[in-house]
Amino acid sequence: MLDDDESTQWQDGGISNQQGSVYLPSSGKLSIPTKEDSSPLTAVIKMGWLDKNPPQGALYYQRRWVKLDVDYLRYFDNDKDVYSKGIISTAFITNVTSVGELKFEVVTNNRTFIFRAESEVERNDWVTVLQDCTRGRRPRSTISPSSPLTPEYQGNLELRGLRSKLYTVVASDKVYLYKNIEDYRIGVGITSIEMNVGNVKETDRRCFDLTTPYRIFSFIAESEQLREQWVDAMRDAIGEALSNREVAERIWVEPSNSLCADCGAVKPEWAAINLCVVVCKRCAGEHRGLGPSISKVRSLKMDRKVWTEELIQALCINVQCSDVLETLSLIFCGADVNCSTGMASWPSPLSLANAHSQPLQAELISHNLNTEVVGDMDPVHYSAPTCVSHNGFLFKTASMARAITERKAREEFSRRWCTLNDGTFSYYESDKNSNPNGALKASEIVCLAVEPPEKHGYDHTFELYIESERLYLFGTDDPDSHKEWVKSIAKSFIPATAEPLLRLGFERIGRLKCKDGLNLQTSKVGWFALVGSTLHAYLADSQGEEIHLRKLNELSIQQDNEVLVLVERGRTLYIEGERKLDFADWCTAIQAAAGSGGDTLSQQQLTETDIPVIVHSCIGYITQCGLTSEGIYRKSGVNSRVAALCERFRRDARSLRLREGEHQVDDVSNTLKRFFRELEEGLFTSEDSSTWLGAAAIQDESMKISQYQLLFNKLPHVNKATLQALINHLYCVQRFSELNQMNLHNLAIVFGPTLFQTDGKDYTAGRAIEDLIQHYTSIFEVRLTAQWQTGTEPGGHFICTVYLEEKKDTAEQHVKIPGSMTAAELVCEVLDRRNIMVKEKEYWSCWEISDKEEMERPLHYQERVLPILHSFGTDSHLLIKKHVAMDAMIVYLASKVDASKHGMMKFREERSILGLGLSSGSFHDRYFILNSNSLRMYKEVRSNRPERDWPVKNLKVYLGVKKKLRPPTCWGLTVVYESKKQEKPERQQWYLCCDTQSEMREWYATFLSIQDGLQQTRVSRVLPDARHGNVSLIPLRGSENEMRNSVAAFSQDPLAVS
């Protein structure tokens, strides 16, 4: 907080705390929230890292995070500190100039501060901004009474744990700390504390604490009397910080309101709302003494809601019902009876009351009207539920505090006369009674659930959940009456903003809290309706949306059953359990809706491409682990294991992850076959399956293919996607027939009867499947490349061989590579398949290995794998292994002041002797300078002009130099330069050798940090940079701890989520 050479006195007491900027005792430190939670400060004009030179001629610089706003230049120990290490008032800055290399001076009348930027551009930018900020001001030499910083209270306070006192100033809504009164007078301080997040508490005789979410400041005053004065001053500052001048300014516009009605004081900040007069603070105390029945006093600054549209909204809603006392209370609190309702048909509360047949409400409003006329006003937008009336007999059980798990017999229901009127649902002993047995306000109802027919003793039932964690069950045998009651009750508590939900045939409808997108700090209210396997939602300030539960990537309950996490297409939605009773039933209903709903394809849990999860999982597992397994799909699995797998997939296919070692290839292949054989309606549909078999008899190949294409396009969407995925997979299997012995004919024999669900006595079904596989590319219009690209999804997949740790047959992994797969995702895929857990300080990477050039490089975690495969030759492959030098490279980069590097290396170009194709030349010493823009090579250290200058963005750096070049050391780098020019692309390759291994690692680490950044180095189960529209989202997998870590990392740096 102080300048570096003066901070020793803060540390002598043994209370140094490097995490903070105030060096508080450890016991007084609170956890620091993320920057999103920080208290709002004055708008920052510029901020960034600078090196600061302490005063008194010290030679060393220390790195500081610097912020500039219109009033102060502040510098911090790091970018996460809330309280600064020092502040310089811009009002006292007399000059800002550039001095020396990358340096600039900030000059006041009594002090000169020197800062150093990382580049000349950055230095010039800081100088320009500072000059603009101070231009036009008359520099001050000392604080004067007319200064902008006018203190309400000031003096010396001791901060507990320090040997010296700080000069403390309470001004407006802030508290400033200075080393002494002299520093205060010259505008050079330690820090400022925003009081809108503060709380003052008296402790011992002379002590008091100023508590904020970030630090606890424990002050000691010189006497008990002074302590009281300090506490009062700081509490006034808190009041000033929390106050809102908007209402006061609007009221003061009227000249008669600019003076106190009693004593004439200027700009009174209080009002007697029932007397319609404004008074000053002193007179407000006298009015309070009269009692609220005579004078109801409110603050113009603190009680903002009294003066806002919230009262107007409440009044407009309430006049539609018969609660006259509530309307009277709202009028006494200041609600304007002359306000505009925002509705053209009923522009005033009086017309609204008359329209809803409320004569007493209309009479009360008319007696409180004044002579003002409602003019053209901005409409007040509020959501008032439509006034609904309904009555009739229902059968009701006693209310419950827990979910209903057993069937309720008819004997447990009692017949009740029920009415719904004025937003209140009441039930009576009979239609003759005037006093209800009980009543539920519509505002208390949070959920309405429609039970399946005949679940209880009465054929048609519904449940009502209320705020107080109670559940009410009602029933009837009349389906029309049941439907009308459900419609009326839902209409009474669902707001107008979510009215489209009422038009759905919902099974459950209600209110829940949720979070989504990047706003994970604040919950918002959402209105949800569950219809079949679709969850319809209307969130705050957004249009309605649909969540297809069977197509979710993930559905889990986290944080001790308090959060339901739904991940769909990269979008994560967190539904929170505000009340245990209805939330538990929502979770049960959503989980049931998200499961498989039957034996047809469309009723299965689906992927984003509308393929059943069971089919996608089995195909993926066999592609990865069984393509070379002899007799795949022909061998039988263990029947008990196959039955268990089928049951687990049927219960929840999404939660089952097939793993090598845990599941056998033949068990999985038989599970897939059994699924298709037992499928209701079949893959080809019972209506058209005979037509498919008939097409197999067509002799003309082109006519046969056209008929297959016609039949394929007639299939339902899910059937089409599933058939194409399966035939694509079988096409891949037969390409490995030399190893697995499953050629085209053998696969057709197995899958013909399975897919057409026939007895297999003839080869008709087999012929159709053989045709589909043989003419796969024509029927499904798939384009193949030399590496037989497959076409499961738009853009296609590759089946690629990846090796784990070393290149050998036992380490081979056949992986399906979609066009969007990144290196990090490929590493996770392979490690998951081999059940390898990533330990602390382990850095797994995907490496590009070139056997011919004897070089290798780790792919950046966001680098797409497919383009790398396209550029491969036959002598290259991908290898998943640990990056053993990564930890040392990270430590090295953390110790660097800047990103550049320079030094001597041995250099050799790739040149060929004409006609022989042999490289020539030898290694020569050269001096290199690497910065964020370019790599420059000089003949020697003293050279002024570089021999070569390459842009860094066009360089690709590999570890290793091929031995035939006879490198002078074994610590070499191969650098490939590729120009981006369309008209004349250029490729160069040369070699660099370092004297030591650590030197080579330093150069390589610098290359990586400049090109890609070394933020992402560890593997995790979170897939980076998933997006939904233009909003970054967080798909989550794994345990609760992994979820929390993912959210925390994402909130700090979305691009560095690993």
Automatic annotation (TrEMBL):
Pfam families tied to this protein: ArfGap, PH, RA, RhoGAP
Region described as Disordered: 1-22
Domain Rho-GAP, first and last residues per copy: 604-780
SMART domains to which the protein is assigned, alphabetical: ArfGap, PH, RhoGAP
Domain Ras-associating: start-end pairs: 796-885
Cell location: Cytoplasm
Ranges of Polar residues composition bias in the record: 8-21
Domain PH: start-end pairs: 43-135, 150-239, 387-494, 898-1012
Arf-GAP domain segment(s): 245-315
Official protein name in the record: ArfGAP with RhoGAP domain, ankyrin repeat and PH domain 1
Source organism per UniProt: Sparus aurata (Gilthead sea bream)
